[in-house]
Amino acid sequence: MKILEFMAQETAVSKQRVLSLAMVSGVTNSLLLVIINQAATKLQDGVVEKQLLFQYLLAFLLFIFAQRTSQRQAVSAVEHALQGFRTRIADKVRRCELRTVEQLGDISLYSSLTQGANTISQSVMYLITGIESLVVLIFASLYLLWLSPLSFLIAAVLIGSAVTLLIRHYQKTFQELSTAAGKEGEFFSRFVGILQGFKRLKIHQQESDAVFADIQQLSTETGNLKSQSNVRLLEDILLLNVIFYSLLLLVVFMLPSLLPTHEENLFQIITTILFMMEPVALISAAYPNLSKTNVAISNLYRLEGKLDTTHSHQSNQPQKSSYEHFNSIGLHQASFVYKNAEQRPLFATGPTTLTCQRGSLTFIAGNNGSGKSTLLKLLTSLYSPNDGCIQVDNQPIGADDYGGYRCLFSVVFNDSHLFDRLYGVDSTSTKIVNHWLEKLGLSDKTSYEKGCFTNTDLSTGERKRLAFINAIMQRRPILVLDEPAADQDVVFRQLLYEEILPELKASGKTLIVSTHDEDYFSYADQVLYLQDGNLNPNKT
After folding, report:
1. What average pLDDT does this structure show over 453-465?
2. Fewer CB atoms inside 10 Å of the end CB: C or N, the chain?
């Protein structure tokens, strides 16, 4: 069972200990049956055995203790395992290279962290009760063998046949549930696509209908697979009920006529068979849940495998820049190529050579799709050059130095995510943050209190201004802005170019800004023009 392996691999809890406690619980539960049967036999003779009463109470207390302890340890182990796994995945994602995250950017890939984790968390009770029930079933069967070998033989044949069929169904159900889980991920991805492309789909009805048809088909296929699996599981439960009632039919109505001595233990045999029905029912309930759990665990490790097989992760050691006294940064014959899943080139930039002096203001201009954002990602080492290198003071730096190099930068990309708080910023900076909110015309929309913005439900341009404040508060020597004037009004655009950027430059900041605003190019120390991924030397 994968859930036991998951607990053992992800926590220090011994799966042997959990199994042992569950088995003790099952054994003591079985002892209760034996003691009850013995006491019932004594009662027929009008005798109440105090020793049997004491044994019953002792077995009952041990049963409660073992069951409670095994359940608590299993629940705690699974929750700690899930907590550690989710944290590990989050750490691996944050330490991945940007291109890796972009290539694995389909949000459906990460749905197993929530949907699958919930399934695993809920399954642990089924696991413990299933193990206990299996032990009870084994000991009850041995007790039945002692009472009536023929009854045991009949029970073994009937239950054995059912178990064989269940195993076959288990394998098929696992495959169907795995396929259904994949299709659910696709459905979730398409649904997110509706939200992200809502404006476009709202205008283009034909495209909207096609997307919906695709979602509808995925939903139907997923529903059919799950329906088939669940119907089969219900039929398996019905089969087990049929097996037991058939067993009772044989034992009660047919065997006494064949074996007269069978009537002597008939009461105990019937009690034992009835006692076996509950553990079989619990095993039947545990079986489908453990099937779904195996799928969920497989999906979790598949996600981690994809992260591990793409690129190596950065070190998680604290990084301090060794380049803080730089005089210039730049690229030397650096190029980068976007490739699709088949490794075919989609877009290339470079080879590019450029230099940005400390304390300067550099504008990077070009049409949409010319490669401005790609160039910024190369310059900040978010992308590693396929050829050429990044330079500091005209000296190349290697991939091992990228962590320290990145400590020079604060960045605001056009698609930057805005958190509701300023992580990694001194908590005593409230007054400074609110000053910038006033300066950027946001003080009437939000404020900064107790380490959080009071409101982030703002327009695209206003949210970009908050991201700008975040970058300022990081106090890095180089500030990189990707289309900072996009989505802004004319008043703020003028304030940005004529006042804010010159002030930051005067304070010693090195500024690298991608922009379309030619009216303000005179404020820059240099303007670099991009066309089709390459610098255009004919424009300066």
Report:
1. 82
2. C
Q: With H, G, I as helix, E, B as strand and everything else as coil, classify residue 421.
A: strand
The encoded tokens of residue 340 equal 């699709």
353 shares a domain with 217: no
* E-state strands within 298-400: 328-339, 345-357, 361-366, 387-392, 395-397
The count of domains in the chain is 2
SS3 528: strand
pLDDT in tens, 248-286: 777 777 766 665 655 566 777 777 777 777 777 677 667
**What are the structure tokens assigned to 266, written together?**
């008939």
pLDDT at 99 over 70: yes
Ranges assigned E (strand) in 260-406? 328-339, 345-357, 361-366, 387-392, 395-397
Contacts of 25 (CB under 8 A, 6+ apart): 63, 66, 67, 70, 132, 135
Instruction: Among 308, 336, 359, give the residue marking a domain's end.
Output: 308
Instruction: Assess whether 382 and 238 both reside in one domain.
Output: no
Instruction: Report the CATH number at residue 8.
Output: 1.20.1560.10
Task: Dump pLDDT digits (tens) for 398-435.
Answer: 888 888 888 898 888 877 777 766 776 665 677 888 88
- The SS3 of residue 119 is helix
In a shared domain, residues 269 and 385: no
Q: pLDDT-based confidence at 66, cuts 50/70/90?
A: confident
Cα 127 to Cα 124, 142, 279: the distances in Å are 5, 23, 13
Q: Could you identify the residue written with the tokens 């219900």?
A: 234
Q: Residue 497: which domain range?
A: 328-535
Task: Examine the domain organization and report whether 218 and 273 are in the same domain.
Answer: yes
Question: Measuring CA to CA, which residue among 187, 180, 286, 167 is closest to residue 226?
Answer: 180
